[in-house]
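Entries read sequence, tokenised fold; example below:

***
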Amino acid sequence: MCLFVYLRIEENKKRSKRLGGHMNFTVSDMVQSWRESVAMFSPHAIKVFMLITLNAYKEMWRSFFVGAWWYCLLCAGIGVEILRGKIPLTGEVIALLYALFVFFIICALRPSIDIKRSFYFFKMFLRYGSWWIVCLLLGWFVWKISGAFFIYTLFIIFLTWEVITLFFILDSGGDGHKIFLAPWNSLEMVGYNIPFVGVWLCVSIGFSVLYWYIQSLEILSIQIAFLFFLLILMIPLYLALLINVYSMKIHQQFNVYYEEL
């Protein structure tokens, strides 16, 4: 990460010379960005940020049920067919439905001037669904190659970068150049906000440890209740927090991510 910071600063110095000194990015700018990340954990900032996030969480569910009602009907229909024995209850079926759920939750959360009705969700899926599939395949690959000892740590780190990448893709407006730069912009956002990302990962790893503990209890009712709590309630809240941080950092550091566009 230190190499990334150094290369980024050198790149901006060269660009500043070409543009007459208008983009002089220095080490002090990076340090200031890290200070802003630390300031996010002050009691007042946490209180305000949580209120904003909870409001976004509430609006997310409203937009989801109003605009993606057909997805809910799809899940209900598949559930009925599973109970009738016509569709096998497999991990692949559950993963596919949950992947669609996460994509639509992200679409419901992101700020947009579009009215979030059925057409909005259809449009977002047709335009960006293929990129979401790419993200899922990459996630599956990282899950497979990671060792058992640090499987969740590695996967959480990758997942955070991957979700931020999807945020940039959804904000690209379909521009191929912006989509191509989305993974790099995501890496930049992680680099410029290392203190926040560090705390974020520690909390995420804590939930992973709790997951392992629940699994070790081997009590089916508790495992099902925890999975519902984690997948249906906490993951959307996780995404609401992350997209609010993303929106705030885009506002604060707009020239960092879009100066070349």
Observations:
- Residues 43-258 form one domain.
- DSSP finds eleven helices and no strands in the chain.
